[in-house]
Amino acid sequence: MVTVYALECGATGMAYVGCTAGKSGKRMREHRCLLNKKRHSAERLQRDWDRYGGNAFYIKTLETLPIDTPVSAKREAELRWMAHYRADGRLYNAHGNSFAPTPEAIVKGVEAARTVVGNRWSPEANLKRRLSQLGKPKGHGAKISATKRAKAMR
Question: What structural domains and CATH numbers belong to the chain?
Answer without folding.
Answer: 2-98 (3.40.1440.10), 101-135 (no CATH)
